[in-house]
Structures are given as C-alpha cells and as structure tokens.
Amino acid sequence: MTLLPAEVAELIIDRCDHLGALSCCSLVCKAWHTRARFCLFSGPVKVVGTTKIEAFVATLQNPLCSLHPYVHSLSIYDWSNSRPLLNYVIPALVGLSNLTSLDIDIEKALLADEANALFCTHFRSIRHLTLRIIFATCADAVNLVCSFPLLETLRLHSRWIGSSPPPIASLPVNLHTLDLGCFLYDVLNWLLSCPPSAAISSVHLRDVSVRDLETVFQYVRFVATTLKSLIICFLGPSENITDLNLGIIDLPELRSLEISGRYSRVHMIVRLLSHIRAPLEHISFYSFLSINPSSVAWAELEERLSGPAYPRLRKVTISTRPHLQRAIQAKIPRLHQLGVLEVVFPEKLDY
Question: Which Gene3D superfamilies match (predicted)?
C-alpha cells in the first residue's frame, strides 16, 4: 500500500458509502486506518435496545477501545422498563471527547444525581441535544441544559417527579432552536424567568393544551423580535380557544407557522391567525376531521390568506387524509388556483 499515493487512497476511502466497505478499509493498513475510521463515524451512531446498548457500553469500556475520538453524533434508544440503564450508560460516554450531538430516549429512566453531575461536567462540546428521560426536579433539568456552553439546538421532552422552582439560569448564548414537550408549563415559566435570548429563531411547542395557550403566547411575545419559525402542536380538542383573551402579537421576522394536532379545526386556525401579525411565507396545519359543508371557517381562512395581510405567502400546506383532499380544495378554490395550496398525506402524525 505504500506504492499508492495518499491522495488516491483517501479518494478511494471517501467514495465508500457502505459501512462494511469502510470497516474493511480501516483494516487494510495503518495508513488507511485513520481516514477510514473518520468516515465510518462521520454519520450518527444509533444504538437501539437494551442488549445493543450494553454491548456498546462494554466496547467503550474496553481498555483497547480506540473509538472515542471518532464518535461525533450518538443516538441511544430504549423503551424497556430498565430504569438503571441510563445511569449505566452516562459514565461510559465520558471519554467521547468530540461528541457534538447526543440523543437519549430512555423515557422510563430516572437520571441519578451522580450521572447528572457527570453529564454537567464532561460533555461541554455538545451542540445538539435531545433528551427524553426523567429528572428528579425541574431544577435538575434546567441546570443540565444550561451546562452546555456551545448548545445550539435543544429538544427537551422530559419529565420530573418532584416540584421545585427552576433556578434563574441563562440559556447558552448560541441556542437558536427549541423543541419542547411534556411538562411544558414548567419549562415555559423557566424560560420566561431568563433574560431573553438574542439567538432564538425556531420554537416547536408540543403537547399544548388550551390552558397552556396564554403562557405559550406570553413566551412567543418574549422572543418576538427574533422568531422566524413557530410550530404549535395541540394535545387535545381546542374548542375553548375562543374564550381566551390572547391579544395581538407582532412577529416581524416570522416566516413559517405550523399548527398541528389530531383535533385541529379550521375555525381554530382562523382564530389563531387573527392574533398573529407577521410576514408569513409558509403556513401549515392539520385537518383530519370531516369537512362540514355548511362551515364558513374555510371561506374565512381563504379570505384571510389570499388577502393583503400576507403578501409574501408562497405556500399553504394542509396535512390531511386522502379522502378529504377534494373537499378541501373545493372549500378554498382561490388558493388552489393561485398554486400556493399543497395537500399532503403524512404516514406518521407529528403531534
């Protein structure tokens, strides 16, 4: 292999897009090993299930293991009842010095104090974090999130078993994307207690109930000057939204708005749009319920979206079921004729 120029060898390795081929390249010789190992772990490493997680941890803990510098993105999923598994995994990850993306979905596992302390002190390079676990208190979750100085995206779908006021802690300065679910009221109240971040541009709020909506609007106002994308996923029926006094929100940078949920109704969409003033380019919502022939909400929606309120509007996406497509197009013919209407049939519903 010494007769083959290094540049040619690297081109050969870079062209390998199969994990088996890259594994073979890493075993050819020492000269190929580093480049092949880097390419092998350039994508996310996904470990699913208790058995594979235990094998992965055993590999990392082996004194001959040399994988640690190469793992940049790691996803760990387990939906069994193995509560101690999480606290067994965290210490094994400490040596992953170049880890920038971490996704842990062990929703029935409680994070112990010792593992939490390791988490806060040994994963400073993380930029993208997804957590679906159980904390002892809301304060533990907040302290963990704020311990990553380079954090850019946060997906927090965790719960906690104890009640405690969240500490006054500032968000990482580079954090621009929030995807929040589960105990949404606690999280939003913590965010409202922080100084407003100048970087927040995308917010995705899941499991929103009607009783949360006033707090949701309060937080949206809090980040109004920087927000470019907003997604609100309703947890259940939202018939009582008309009883709320939400006021008007000016969102000068908002370009994309999505409203979803199994029970979304068009009159609710119209109601929400009446509270938001923004130069929207893309509006997306769900409509899985039967179309009421006598409903005037569709006509109100078309009038609002095709009028002067949204001069930049380029696309209206409606997620629905195939048998409702023609009824929807008949209800909003002007949007259909303008070519801005997009009807999609999602295989997986995102609430």
Answer: Ribonuclease Inhibitor (3.80.10.10)
Which residues of the chain are in CATH 1.20.1280 domains? 1-40
Q: Residue 182: left if φ>0, alpha if ψ -120 to 50, beta else—which one?
A: left
Query: Which pLDDT tens digit goes with each residue over 120-136?
Result: 888 989 999 999 999 99
In one-letter notation, the amino acid at residue 257 is L
- What is the CATH architecture assignment of 201-351? Alpha-Beta Horseshoe (3.80)
**Reported pTM:** 0.85
**Rounded-to-integer distance, Cα 161 and Cα 159, Å:** 7
> Which residues of the chain are in CATH 3.80.10 domains?
44-189, 201-351
- Percent pLDDT > 90 in the chain is 37
Residue 18 pLDDT more than 70?
no
> Which residues, in sequence order, are bridge partners of residue 103?
75, 130
The predicted structure's pLDDT at residue 1: 53
Give the CATH fold of the 1-40 domain.
Monooxygenase (1.20.1280)
